[in-house]
Amino acid sequence: KRQLLQQLKGKENVTLDGKKIKIYANIGNTSDVGLVLKNDAGGIGLFRSEFLYLENNNFPTEDQQFQVYKTVAQNMGGKKVIVRTLDIGADKQADYFDLPKEENPALGYRAIRICLTQKDIFRTQLRALFRASVFGKIAIMFPMIISVEEVKEIKEFMEEIKNELRQEGIPFADNIETGIMIETPAAAMISDLLAKEVDFFSIGTNDLTQYTLAIDRQNPKLDKFYNAHHEAIVRMIKMVVDNGHAEGIWVGICGELGADLDMTETFLKLGVDELSVSPSMVLSVRKKVRETDVSKL
Ligand code: PEP
Ligand code: MG
């Protein structure tokens, strides 16, 4: 079976009736890039940048981050690398952030909420990303979005930083794709409005399921209730894809559900443009896509 999968390297992600989909990979560290290439992923659909912060005893500097993003972008050649900005808080804690103890960390001070409050942290990461953008094809996406206002604030802040860099004579790519994760029910429900503001959506089904079903994704006692196939989730995915397409942007899935082979047919039918899965699942998903005939579903 392994050998059969190996034969799929270099092959297209195309269904029997000619429908194509992108299959990218999720990584959480620079050391995963080898696996991404080995498994022939089309790009990196989710680079969880948290490791930079979690493996450090202090805030990673702009240069430290720049080196990491640059290396990944270069190693991926011309392939897209979608870096997700800091998603710390809740289950992911680093002492030096000095985050308050909270009653409901999953509903608390985390991710983009930290970045939009402590802008110095956000600035450092964005500057590093922009600087690295000339060494490959970097795209940026933002986690835990709930409103259009947040997105507008982020866009304004990015412009501010670009101006800074211009004034300093530091080059950056001028066509950096920017997108958001759709991982809160709020974002799914207003995806028609959000779609007017960004270049792409990436659906984070892990958190979207947690927040939609009101089930802590970390509580093993609730495993039997945590149903990522729940009709509510499928309907939200459909809504997000349709709203994204209505504004001409692409829509991907980067949560665990993206690699669920029982869902591949559904995703193809809904018109999902990209699935970002763990590197080891890339070829299995490709196999499933190539065996599917969407016209017969
Ligand atoms: C998600 O929530 O589905 C996701 C991809 O992000 P993370 O698992 O890092 O929260
Ligand atoms: Mg998430």
TrEMBL record:
Binding site for phosphoenolpyruvate: 48, 84, 206-207, 217
Predominant localisation class: cytoplasm
Task of the protein: General (non sugar-specific) component of the phosphoenolpyruvate-dependent sugar phosphotransferase system (sugar PTS). This major carbohydrate active-transport system catalyzes the phosphorylation of incoming sugar substrates concomitantly with their translocation across the cell membrane. Enzyme I transfers the phosphoryl group from phosphoenolpyruvate (PEP) to the phosphoryl carrier protein (HPr).
Domain PEP-utilising enzyme C-terminal: 5-293
Keyword Cytoplasm: yes
Originating organism: Anaerobium acetethylicum
EC number: 2.7.3.9
Name of this chain's protein: Phosphoenolpyruvate-protein phosphotransferase
Cofactor or coenzyme needed: Mg(2+)
Binding site for Mg(2+): 183, 207
